């Protein structure tokens, strides 16, 4: 397997751990995680993943929206010449900045999504791998990218993380636009679906149904089900990080729900736990490691998971059905 890297000086990423109901055996961290009864709205069932005490602190790490709002963190096309699958990151915040797989950045020559979770060191210029989610544009509309707290739906970010194929990502984006926006726009931008009035109305309803999870201090992640199957799951090191990321993840999951035909059968929490317990025996491949972070993939015939560790602690893991 090709190892993914972060270039220019030392950008790195870490994937996090997963969950269960609780999972018997395996690491103590996994065994401490429990899955609660699902909250349900329309085509989406959301299972809270809890960790007593709300998890471990990670030190001074901020998310991309906080970094960008400071004016000291910029993402741009490469200075030496734009490349579809690589962008430049300038971090002058003095803090570590975590950027997550699937986060959408708008502008420059074309919209992109981040390829994999990455912790950007406090000061310096770095490069980060990305995928284009706007196939029909290669003209500059801004000097740098903007971030509107959006994460691509599981169908798109899972394709990017799993297949690592730009053509398949474009195909996934086109499928979303055809279903959600009802039309493929001239540039086939994924953001057309997020901007569609009909989707925004539905997303608002999902937000009202599930926003309470951010107020439960023991919740560190979620697993989501639609059409009777697990669509995706995201678990974080602690509640504070989950609470910050949850609103944008919820928009992502809302898009997946809109793409689904029905809710389908709703598994029990124990059934979700049994499914996720397979992670402890899944094939593990380390794809990146340095002195502060590691990325690994976990896979078997039924799932693919992407795990990030930072400073020896589990930071984030996301899982998709195979």
- Total domain count: 1
Question: Pairing-aware structural class of the strands and helices?
Answer: alpha+beta
Helix content: 25-40%
Strand elements, count: 18
Q: Which segments are poorly predicted (pLDDT under 50) over 5 or more consecutive residues?
A: 1-26
Number of helices: 8
What overall form do the CA principal axes indicate?
A: globular
First-residue to last-residue Cα separation: 17 Å
| Secondary-structure element string | HEEEEHEEEEEEEEHHHHEEHHEEEE
Strand content: 25-35%
Radius of gyration (CA) equals 18 Å
Mean pLDDT: 88
- Main sheet: strands, sense, barrel: 9 strands, antiparallel
Short recap of the structure:
This protein has 322 residues and is α+β, with helices and mostly antiparallel strands.
Note down, in words, how this protein is organized.
- The protein is built from eight helices and 18 strands.
- By secondary structure, the chain is α+β, with helices and mostly antiparallel strands.
- It has one domain.
- The strands form three sheets. Strands 1, 2, 3, 13, 14, 15, 16, 17 and 18 form a nine-stranded antiparallel β-sheet that branches. The chain has a six-stranded antiparallel β-sheet with strand order 5-6-11-9-8-12.
- Helix 6 packs across helix 7.
- 48% of the residues are buried.
SSE topology sketch:
Elements: H1 28-32, E1 34-35, E2 39-41, E3 44-50, E4 61-63, H2 64-69, E5 73-76, E6 86-91, E7 96-99, E8 103-107, E9 112-114, E10 118-120, E11 124-132, E12 145-151, H3 154-163, H4 166-180, H5 191-195, H6 197-210, E13 219-226, E14 229-236, H7 239-259, H8 269-276, E15 283-289, E16 293-299, E17 303-310, E18 313-321
Parallel strand pairs: 4-7
Antiparallel strand pairs: 1-3, 2-3, 3-13, 5-6, 6-11, 7-10, 8-9, 8-12, 9-11, 13-14, 14-18, 15-16, 16-17, 17-18
Helix pairs in contact: 3-4, 6-7
């Amino acid at each position: 397997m090709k190892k993914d890297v972060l270039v220019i000086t030392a950008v790195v990423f870490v994937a996090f751990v997963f969950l269960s109901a609780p999972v018997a055996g395996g690491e103590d961290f996994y065994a401490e995680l429990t899955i609660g009864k699902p909250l349900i709205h329309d085509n989406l069932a959301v299972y809270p993943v809890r960790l007593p005490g709300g998890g471990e602190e990670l030190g001074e790490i901020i998310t991309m929206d906080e970094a960008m709002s400071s004016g000291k963190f910029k993402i741009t096309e490469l200075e030496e010449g734009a490349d579809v699958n690589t962008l430049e990151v300038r971090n002058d915040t003095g803090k570590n900045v975590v950027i997550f797989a699937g986060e959408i950045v708008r502008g420059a020559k074309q919209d992109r999504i981040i390829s994999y979770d990455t912790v950007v060191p406090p000061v310096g210029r770095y490069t980060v791998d990305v995928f284009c989610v706007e196939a029909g544009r290669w003209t500059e509309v801004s000097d740098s990218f903007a971030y509107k707290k959006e994460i691509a739906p599981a169908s798109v970010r899972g394709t990017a993380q799993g297949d690592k194929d730009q053509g398949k990502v474009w195909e996934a984006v086109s499928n979303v636009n055809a279903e959600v926006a009802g039309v493929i726009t001239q540039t086939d931008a994924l953001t057309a679906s997020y901007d569609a009035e009909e989707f925004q109305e539905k997303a608002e309803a999902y937000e009202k149904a599930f926003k309470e999870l951010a107020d439960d201090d023991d919740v560190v992640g979620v697993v989501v089900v639609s059409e009777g199957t697990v669509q995706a799951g995201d678990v974080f090191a602690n509640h504070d990080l989950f609470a910050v990321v949850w609103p944008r993840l919820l928009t992502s999951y809302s898009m997946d729900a809109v793409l689904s035909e029905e809710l389908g059968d709703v598994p029990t929490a124990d059934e979700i736990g049994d499914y996720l317990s397979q992670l402890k025996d899944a094939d593990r491949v380390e794809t990146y490691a340095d002195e502060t972070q590691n990325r690994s993939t976990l896979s078997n015939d039924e799932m693919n998971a992407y795990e990030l560790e930072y400073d020896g602690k589990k930071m984030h893991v996301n899982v998709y059905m195979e």
